């Protein structure tokens, strides 16, 4: 009996010791956390303490990033620019960029249109020698795509796509708005370009003078460069971008004018060569050639852009639009926007 009581008392004493040890450990952990909190609070207070600090100073410090952003944004636009000029830059620049991206995306993703391979009631003017299938009016075979394309103009490597009946408007609009964007960038950045070019000329002159001075001095007496690498790269980038925009504006502008002349005459690049040969052939016989797909200068533009009403000049020309062109590319009926009827003829 006594042995049982001793064993029971020993177990109870062991439990009491375990409880005391657990309490001590929890107390030590809480005490350490409290000491760390006090130490961190003291360090933060010592770093931020200032006898002149008050609520106004704290508020100004919180708004300092906003002040920095406003100062740099106004510096980008120019300090002397009026609010109207800034609004014009924001509106026109974003509109032009939107039109470029939209028409480029549509030009590369929209199929130009292909004649049906299966037998159908499509009116054909000839048989393609490579496809061995009926070829509708104004359709031509593309050797790169290895298919016939409806109203084919050319195969554009920059689009990786043929320019045909369904994406001809997207291609021309992209060229037009891209040219307008390059001209806009060139004109609006003319002052920045002149300053950067003048800075580069001053840099070359100072480097030349520095080399002449350093030739008569030791290595340790050579003065440091006047312009940093960042300043040189900035000025050269401005000059490079301006020259690039001007070059693209000239090259792409010439291409846009060429296609605008073709649209005015109601023909494509391929039909231009075919019509010239036919015009010369008929001229020798004393006859006059007439393009069966030309409805006049103004009507040709309305047919190409898909303008049927006055409202379409805004919704289909000045704003992004995915409307389909007139006709299916398989047959060429009289467009609804043309008032003067023409005698329907087959394509050459």
UniProtKB/TrEMBL annotation:
Subcellular location: Membrane
Short name of one Pfam family: DHHC
GO MF annotations in UniProt: protein-cysteine S-palmitoyltransferase activity
Transmembrane segments: 85-106, 170-193, 238-261
Enzyme Commission (EC) number: 2.3.1.225
Major location category of this protein: membrane
Reaction it catalyzes: L-cysteinyl-[protein] + hexadecanoyl-CoA = S-hexadecanoyl-L-cysteinyl-[protein] + CoA
Record key words, sorted: Acyltransferase, Membrane, Transferase, Transmembrane, Transmembrane helix
Classification via InterPro entries: Palmitoyltrfase_DHHC, PFA4/ZDH16/20/ERF2-like
First-level EC class: transferase
Cellular compartments per GO CC: membrane
Chain ranges of the Palmitoyltransferase DHHC domain: 126-273
Stretch forming the signal peptide: none
Recorded superkingdom: Eukaryota
Membrane topology: Multi-pass membrane protein
Protein family per UniProt: Belongs to the DHHC palmitoyltransferase family.
Domain notes: The DHHC domain is required for palmitoyltransferase activity.
Name of the featured protein: Palmitoyltransferase
Originating organism: Gopherus evgoodei (Goodes thornscrub tortoise)
Highest classification ranks of the organism: Eukaryota, Metazoa, Chordata, Craniata, Vertebrata
